Amino acid sequence: MMxxxxxxAATTPVAPExxxxxxxxxxxxxxxxxxxxAPGRKAKALVETxxxxxxxxxxxxxxxxxxxxxxxxxxxxxxxxxxxSLGVRRLVTSAAEHSAVIKASEFAGEQANVEVVHVKxxxxxxVDLEDLARILAEGSAKTLVSLMHANNxxxxxxxxxxxxxxxxxxxxxxxxxxVQTMGHYPLDLNDVxxxxxxxxxxxxxxxxxxxxxxxxxxxxxxxxxxxGGQERALRGGTENVAGIVGLAKAMExxxxxxxxxxxxxxxxxxxxxxxxxGLLPGVSFNGCSDREDxxxxxxxxxxxxxxxxxxxxxxxxxxxxxxxxxxxCSSGAxxxxxxxxxxxxxxxxxxxxxxxxxRYTTDADIDHALDSVAKIFAxxxxxx
Length: 384
Ligand code: PLP
Fold this sequence. Notes:
Layout: E1 4-5, H1 16-28, H2 38-58, E2 65-68, H3 71-86, E3 90-93, H4 99-112, E4 115-118, H5 129-137, E5 143-146, H6 160-169, E6 173-177, E7 196-200, E8 211-215, H7 241-256, H8 258-279, E9 284-285, E10 298-302, H9 312-319, E11 321-322, H10 338-342, E12 352-356, H11 363-376
Parallel strand pairs: 1-11, 3-4, 3-5, 5-6, 6-7
Antiparallel strand pairs: 2-8, 7-8, 9-10, 10-12
Helix pairs in contact: 1-7, 2-7, 3-4, 8-11, 9-11
Bound molecules: pyridoxal-5'-phosphate.
Pyridoxal-5'-phosphate binds at residues 70-72, 75, 98, 100, 148, 152, 177, 179-180, 200, 211.
């Protein structure tokens, strides 16, 4: 049976070249990077070469990158470091952020008595930058702004340069969760005023369980996980050597073929949007996710009212299409979408489904998704 994987914002398949690079590490490198003997030095060299490669691509110095277990840890670390090490007393973020940022902010609010302020969004889903400027102009508390580069459900984006400049103007620190854009968009850190950004390898065909936090080298922060002093005491624990090598390989492939991958994905996304418009008059796109200036890997579709609405993701899976109806909790159950609710897109009569694409998505996947949608959302006859 044909199965189309259209849930790449949740995770992407590991590139064969990445798997091969990691297998080579598993086969040939067994040392602990903290050991001073030859096998340890070999492992350490791989970690540091990978860090250097990543830093070169992003235009920063290697010491700015602290390897983590992925995006969630990096988001938590940025917020904890801002509050615990840099004296931040106010967090300005959004109700549409990833739960890693929302929960870490709430936690800081409860544990450290930090004020948490949510910026408004326009009806299009875009962050209201005038509201952000107004918030920043108010009050004198040391502030961290945490706003994601691209929303993982709607694809709405911010301009990192613009928000970075605004934060600088008001003396605020700036963190951006770049989990959905890293490896998909060019990024030159010489060009952007940013203090923290987060990366997760499994969103661009790298392995799960590895990522990094970029920390502006002018800032002095403490580690969140203390232990053996690894990562310059920013993150204790024996390094995930194969994961780090896989991350660097995934970034290399992503950066070297970025333009052609993006063109391929944009074409397929437009094909799905066009096909859905043709199939279902009344279909619309939450957060204007069909627009060119949205994250090109994500299309968030609001289907017209239909008796199958409540079961759309389940029925699509049965037809052989993987997609998402909101963030999945650890048990795998769909919790609904806090993002759709926060931005006023939630509508119990209509299914909202996120389709997300990667360089491995094919025309056949899109055709299969359209055929499946046509079956599930076929007009229901008035007669029973
Ligand atoms: N931030 C965003 C925007 C994401 O989409 C995700 C993954 O779903 C994360 C953070 C968490 O990343 P990880 O799965 O590496 O912990």
